[in-house]
Amino acid sequence: MTKKEYERLSYQLEHLKIVTNNALKSLELNLKSIENLEAQLQEFIHEERPTSPTYIPPVSQVDVNSKPSDLIRMKEVIRMTGFSRSTIYLKMKKRDFPQAISLGCRSIAWLRKDVKDWILSKVNTSRKLTE
């Protein structure tokens, strides 16, 4: 092996060491990020949350001009009930929530009156249980 070939191989070897070290550092950072995300996920899973939150807005927030037959969309239903989107769909599937009305191929809404009546029935049931 000539001196020139030796120097070229030495340079390639040194370059490979540097690239490998950089890759290892990057993998270690990725591993730390994964561990942090796993810890956050575990905290979220074990975090205590109410099982069936019901939000009833104060009288000052109720729209006095709304008609009982108004159609409301998902965001409003979420705001009124405090449920997540998936919980609403799950409760609809179990027939424990008013059924949505199809407005088109990818659009649904609820009758405001149906959702308000459902909330009131839950409040009344809850109050009867505590009496």
Q: Could you explain how this protein is built, in words?
A:
With 131 residues, this protein is mainly alpha-helical. It is 61% helix and 8% strand. The chain is built from four helices and three strands; from the N terminus they run αβααββα. It has a three-stranded antiparallel β-sheet. Strand 2 and strand 3 form a beta hairpin. The longest helix has 44 residues. The model has no long low-confidence stretch (mean pLDDT 83).
Number of helical segments with 4 or more residues = 4
Mean pLDDT: 83
Low-confidence stretches: none
> Could you state the oligomeric state of the chains shown?
single chain
- Strands ordered across the widest β-sheet: 1-3-2
Structural class: mainly alpha
Shape: elongated
Round the Cα radius of gyration to an integer and report it. Answer: 29 Å
Give the biggest sheet: 3 strands, antiparallel
Provide the descriptors you would attach to this structure in a database record:
131 residues, mainly alpha, three-stranded antiparallel beta sheet, 4 helices, 8% strand, elongated
Gist of the model:
The protein is mainly α.
Layout of strands and helices, then pairs:
Blueprint: H1 3-46, E1 71-72, H2 74-81, H3 85-93, E2 101-104, E3 107-111, H4 112-130
Antiparallel strand pairs: 1-3, 2-3
